[in-house]
Write a structure and sequence with these properties.
The complex is a heterodimer. Chain A is about 35% helix and about 15% strand. Chain A is an alpha/beta fold. Chain B contains 13 helices and 16 strands. Classes of the chains: A alpha/beta, B alpha/beta. β8 of chain A pairs antiparallel with β9 of chain B.
Chain lengths: ~375, ~400
């Protein structure tokens, strides 16, 4: 897929979490768009409309699109189906690398074969590549990885990321475009210096990855095979059993196409959009919210006194009552359980530490964000 | 004809009363054994609310009668009661109906078989008890079935038939029965009530397949969706339901009603003198009687004019209308609505009729006579309309397609 108009566009995706990154993602996308205009191109930017990151840590995506020189198409919200479009993907919170995006897609879905991945992290590019192979890529990728420790350049992570992104965009817009447009819009010296320094320090690591080397590709192939060979359950009249089968298939669908393809035809929809729920005691199929986590609570059973406060206070009911057990499919990592635990038996560890034993240093806790940014 | 029940048998009692439209509708609601009634007073619908309250207080039937704080709550209450599995009744007029708009829209798009009566009343500003159709017509696009009665008798029949149509599992759409405010709601005329046995046969209890009831199968209803996943499919479901209503359910319901009660209405369009008419006056509701009276007078003066009364506005019977008006030279729409800024600065019914007739090879010339502002129509104005229509048919061109016959001053 892809027409002449779409091929000429420079498209950047910025992934973040929560209201803080909503503001900062907006600032990054705006800065790039202004730089694009400075470079003589038409530029748009927008947040993915379906995202609602009012809640702390819910993921969101910002898009910045630069024309060549103009943009002649209406821009889609669901970008996956229109093919390979991203020149650069930026990730503001590295824990997003072990989860699906807000679009329930892989981080590199929809990216061009030579796309650049910019990650705000203390990890080394090699570590990022390992994560990408395991969690984020299901296509051939001959691009590059840039890691940036944005807190080194400024308390506002925007400037470090912009500097790295400008390097990643490799001439589509230049550092001059970015700095000039930032100056013209009243940015102070410290911000401009941060961008310049980050740009200088950024060291793109070239990547040459085959789809077959990536875990998601293997899983995806299996699931797609199963999806293609599954008997059609589209033409039967609406009933609960069939509905639950559909729901299961849609939940496992690895691609945008297979997910939308798993949706029922209109003829089998119950009038008034009825959806069957789980019965008491059953689990709800296909509604996992673990993608919202930066940190996960871990309980030390030796310290726990079974007071049940974590169960009572969990806003999502993600702590089972008896025995006390954290349900990692629904836990969103808010930290309330750790906060109310008397004996401090629950502590929060970074997702990357829990899943990959990586000590991420570049993260923003809610507490820090409240202090720094008063959100 | 076959051996259908046309005459009442001794056991089945059909009584004849002189009732206002409001009282007649209340009787229909009682006979339909409605479970939940949400009420909020606004003239001219208030009479219905009063009649129902009187009946319930007098022990004539039992229903949950909820007097809400506003029309907005009123329509919300019946929407949710219907989702849970109750048979519901609601009503409003004019600006009140618009106040409930949020719930009105959701009721249709959520496919809930609520039956409501609109006492058509002019919209504010200014406050006006006069009759205009715009309040009901405002909701013409979203999936409500809409029908216009011509007298209290038809109002009663339409409300009862509405339940059968709405609750049909392949339809499941809400239904407005629109009554010309004051003219039908507050004028008493003879009404024959159907027998209890007829209604019992005609209207089985309301049993939705998937009610929002935790004692039944736990379900969610009308949750937030992503358009990429299910957007058009949901809309198509409502579209298909409307088509089913038009093709099958509405004609079948009126056929059965005719067999049971002997009152035979053509489901969609009632026509007079079409065999030899070169001009036709088209309208909905009570003023069709005035039109029929006027065209008789015109025919005595050798003017070949006929009339068409539209019973259902949604679904709009465009194919049947094309068939009926084929070969007619001019059609004049007697329209109690306005559609400011629409094509030809016309009116709602006029634009719909024009759209319906577009596909005819030799389409009739179309005129609109807008009776706006709620001012009562007089016979002389109707005769003027006939004059203009005949003139148009004779000359083959329309001098001024859209006219406001009741206006004082220049009709610019």
């Amino acid at each position: 897929m892809g027409s002449t108009e779409l091929e000429g566009l420079t498209w950047i995706a910025v992934h973040g979490r929560g209201v803080l990154h909503t503001a900062q993602g907006s600032q990054i996308a705006l800065t790039l768009s202004q730089a694009g205009i400075n470079a003589g191109r038409e530029a748009y930017y927008y947040m993915r409309y379906d995202d609602s990151p009012e809640r702390v840590q819910l993921p969101l995506i910002y898009y910045s699109v630069l024309g060549k020189p103009s943009i002649d198409v209406v821009l889609p919200e669901e970008v996956q189906p229109i093919g390979e479009i991203f020149n650069a993907v930026a990730v503001l919170d590295s824990s997003m690398l072990v989860h699906q995006t807000s679009q329930r897609a892989l981080m590199l879905d929809g990216s061009k074969p030579d796309c650049a991945l910019v990650v705000n992290t203390s990890m080394k590019p090699e570590q990022v590549l390992k994560l990408v192979k395991k969690y984020n890529c299901a296509q051939d990728w001959n691009g590059r990885i840039i890691t940036v420790r944005s807190s080194r350049y400024h308390t506002n992570l925007v400037y470090g990321v912009v500097g790295a992104l400008t390097k990643a965009l490799d001439g589509e817009i230049t550092l001059e475009n970015v700095v000039d447009s930032m100056e013209a819009t009243g940015n102070k010296v410290d911000a401009l210096d941060a961008v310049r320094q980050s740009h200088e320090d950024a060291e793109p690591m070239p990547v040459s990855l085959k789809a077959a080397e990536c875990e998601p590709f293997k899983t995806k192939s299996k699931l797609l095979e199963a999806y293609r060979s599954a008997p059609s359950i589209q033409s039967d009249p609406w009933d609960r059993a069939i509905y639950m089968q559909l729901k299961q298939r849609a939940a496992e669908a690895p691609t945008y196409e297979s997910r939308t393809g798993s949706m029922p035809r209109w003829e089998v929809l119950a009038p008034g959009l009825i959806e069957f729920n789980q019965r008491p005691g059953e689990r709800n199929i296909g509604f996992k919210t673990s993608f919202a986590r930066t940190f996960r609570p871990v309980r030390d059973p030796k310290l726990c006194v079974d007071c049940k406060l974590c169960h009572i206070f969990c806003p999502d009911g993600a702590v089972d009552f008896n025995p006390i057990r954290i349900d990692y499919e629904y836990c969103k990592g808010c930290g309330v359980c750790a906060s109310v635990c008397g004996p401090k038996a629950i502590f929060m560890i970074h997702e990357l530490k829990a899943l990959e034993d990586i000590d991420e240093q570049e993260f923003l806790t809610l507490r820090k964000a409240l202090i720094e940014y008063a959100y | 004809m076959s051996s259908v029940i046309v005459k009442a048998e001794p056991k089945t009692v059909m009584k004849r009363q002189i009732w206002t439209g409001a009282r007649a509708v209340a009787e229909a609601v009682r006979m339909a054994d409605v479970d939940v009634i949400a009420a909020y007073p606004i003239r001219p619908y208030t009479g219905i609310m009063n009649s129902l309250a009187t009946m319930i207080a007098g022990g004539e039937f039992h229903a949950e009668y909820v007097v809400c704080d506003s029309e907005h709550s009123q329509f919300e209450v019946v929407k949710h009661a219907s989702a849970v599995g109750a048979r519901t009744f609601v009503g409003s007029s004019g600006t009140g109906l618009v106040y409930g708009a949020e719930a009105v829209v959701v009721t249709a798009l959520g496919q809930l078989p609520v039956v409501g009566v609109v006492g058509c009343r002019a919209l504010d500003d200014p406050g006006n008890f006069g009759m205009e159709w715009n309040d009901a017509l405002m909701f013409r696009d979203i999936g409500w079935l809409m029908s216009w009665a011509k007298d209290p008798q038809e109002a009663l029949d339409m409300v009862l038939v509405a339940y059968r149509i709405s609750e049909n599992p392949s339809v499941m759409l809400p239904h407005f029965v629109a009554l010309d405010g004051a003219t039908i709601t507050h004028v008493a005329s003879p009404v024959t009530t159907p027998a209890k046995e007829h209604v019992a046969e005609f209207l089985p209890p309301y049993k939705p397949r998937n009610p929002l009831d935790p004692r039944a199968e736990p379900i969610s209803k009308a949750m937030h969706i992503a358009p990429s996943l299910i957007g058009p499919e949901q809309r198509k479901g409502v579209d298909a339901a409307m088509k089913k209503a038009k093709e099958e359910v509405i004609p079948e319901a009126w056929r059965l009603w005719a067999d049971l009660t002997g009152r035979r209405y053509p489901p969609f369009l009632e026509a007079k003198h079409l065999e030899d008419s070169e001009c036709v006056l088209l309208t909905m509701g009570a003023y069709s009687k005035d039109i029929d009276y006027v065209i008789e007078r015109q025919r005595r003066r050798n003017r070949k004019i006929g009339s068409v009364r539209l019973r259902y506005f949604r679904p709009f019977p465009d194919d049947e209308l094309r068939e009926m008006l084929k070969g007619v030279k001019a059609v004049g729409v007697v329209d109690f609505s306005y559609s400011l800024g629409s094509p030809h600065h016309g009116s709602v019914l006029y634009n719909e009729v024009r759209a319906a007739l577009y596909d005819l090879k030799d389409r009739p010339l179309a005129m609109s006579f807008i009776f706006a502002g709620g001012r009562e129509m007089t016979i002389s104005e109707l005769e003027g309309a006939c004059e203009a229509l005949t003139q148009t048919a004779r000359s083959g061109r329309i001098e001024k397609p859209v006219r406001w016959p009741t206006i004082r001053g220049e009709d610019v």
